[in-house]
Target: Mobile element protein
Amino acid sequence: MCYDLIAKTNRKEEIQMSLTNPILCLFEITDPNLIVTGISKERCSTNQRIHVVHATLSYQLLKCPHCGHKSLIKNGTHMSHLRLGTLSGGRYEMHLKRQRYQCKDCSKTCGAKTKLVNRNETFTHNIKHQVIVLARDMLTSKEITKLCGISPSSVQRILNANIHLAYRVKHLPENLCFDEFRSCNHWMSFNCCDAVSHRRIVTLKDRLSKDIIDYFEARFSVQERAQVQSVTIDMNAEYGSFIHRLFPNAATIIDRFHIIQLAGRALDNERTQTIRTIQDKHSRIYHILKSQWRLFHLDEIKVNDSKAVYLRGINEYMTQQNAIDLALDAFPRFRSVYQTYQGILSAIHQKDANAFQSLLTNYQPTSNQMDITINTFIKNGSALLNSCRYPFSNGPIEGLNRKIKALKRNCFGFRNIDNFFIRISLIHE
Model:
């Protein structure tokens, strides 16, 4: 009978040990002092089903952590309810019995410790890691709540405790990109990134010149800022007013896309004014200017002048060049604007600074919509020509802003700008 009892006890311990390792491996728990004693299903007060893992934590403690004596005895257990990471989208908990110890010398008590969770916390490192990974995938707090089985406020507390915004980057890159985006409560926030590595440098709550100047002057020395060689911006005049103050050796570059966009807007405004002067709304010229507006934005090299195609709106077969010529021949003023636009487009695509400079110098005002655009280009002459001399553009920072807009749209906006910036730092890691 004694041998049978010993054999049953050993067999029970072997079964427990065989179940312990696979279960702990599922939750990525590596503490050797944890032993799983069972698995059950329960329901909480909100009628939510909970998967419970029952385990014990016990090991031999040699010295008292308070007085250092070796007179320790076991003094019962303490039950801890820990939140584990999810396996299938449900709520998983561990009911852990921690061994308690009492010192005979100082009469103080202590308990067994584990690296599974921080002191006085119930969320394990596993579930914290899952929350951060899901937040990096642009999921909303409610979606993370459903997947991990925790509350939205707990999700935000985990993110606030584990994600810290850097005071500054270690090294200021040689080429920067400036831009802004709409953040919270209709505020416009400032964004800056590396033009080469596309790494985010800083995101500020507003785009005021004073705050941007204070940030760079307070965190970077004059020697560090003097190493910056170029700063790429859009047509925002405020940026150009303080770039030389912050970065004395940097060349200001206006993004090529914004140059073509401004010229194309002037072309569209002139085309719209031309359409309004046409009395016959059923004429061929009217339909060309009205429906085939994309043809006038094409580069002359890409315009098809040999193959006739069916043009919707005109309801005729003709070449693209023929349709353009019909509109330009009827309105000489629109022709001059179109030719100027094509000159700008050609200089930008070929990155020919001399041709761009010649176009601005030889331009003759004709009281059209392009006059305002050319005057704007002349005021930003050096920065405009640098767009043809340097290979950098605002494409990297526009890509970062696109991710920010996608995050804001997925989460249906943010009321707290600090929480918004924490999520921005996650998606840009």
About this structure: The chain has 16 helices and twelve strands.
